[in-house]
Design brief:
By secondary structure, this protein is α+β, with helices and mostly antiparallel strands. The protein contains four helices and 15 strands. The radius of gyration is 17 Å and the shape is globular.
Length: 249
Amino acid sequence: MIIIKTKDQIDKMHEAGKLLAEVHKELRKRIVPGVTTLELDVFVEEFLREHGATPEQKGYQGFPYSICASVNDEVCHGFPTESTLKEGDIITVDIVVNLDGYLADSAWSYAVGEVSEEKQNLLDVTKKALYLGIEQAVIGNRLGDIGHAIQSYVEPLGYSVVRDFIGHGIGKDMHEDPQVLHYGTPGRGVRITEGMVFTIEPMINTGGYAIKMDDNGWTARTRDGGLSAQYEHTIAITKEGPIILTEQD
């Protein structure tokens, strides 16, 4: 069942989203060669708690950290570790903020120092794919229009769209209906209506879209060893168009 949000609920989620955006802005300064992803995890939790919020991921179905930190071939749900980031790495940091009981969810991919042209192109394409998907999130369209916009952009460029992980509704719970695929057929799927709030979060690979799971039961990585990147926003559907609740700019 899709839970339609009131303006007041959307406003509360927007406050959570603004705080989440501030966290990502701070991470821009801290993601440098030599830092550990565990240090980033500690920073995020302390920052959120200092601002009256909590990291919703921590403890979710046993997940032990405040962020997901996925490096290079890791697609999502990477565990923070004491290993240092190296010049030329790429990393995706995924965070869910709980502020006064309302949630916002945003993942962002970062270059660690100077990266190769291949990695920078992947970051650029994935970020553009996110915003192309958001452009389709208007009243009257269908969810398939979002997925089609993403898939039809990235695949002709030689990239693939991960199938195993998708966007989702969000509100007071992290995962609600509807499910938002990042591939598909235009004109198909649930019709987009005012008051929906959901994430769009394409994970794009340089190789194939198949994934494999690490022994920790959480971390997914590309099966062929290719690179992966992800950008994610939480958006609310209004008469004026989609509002990005986690916009950083």
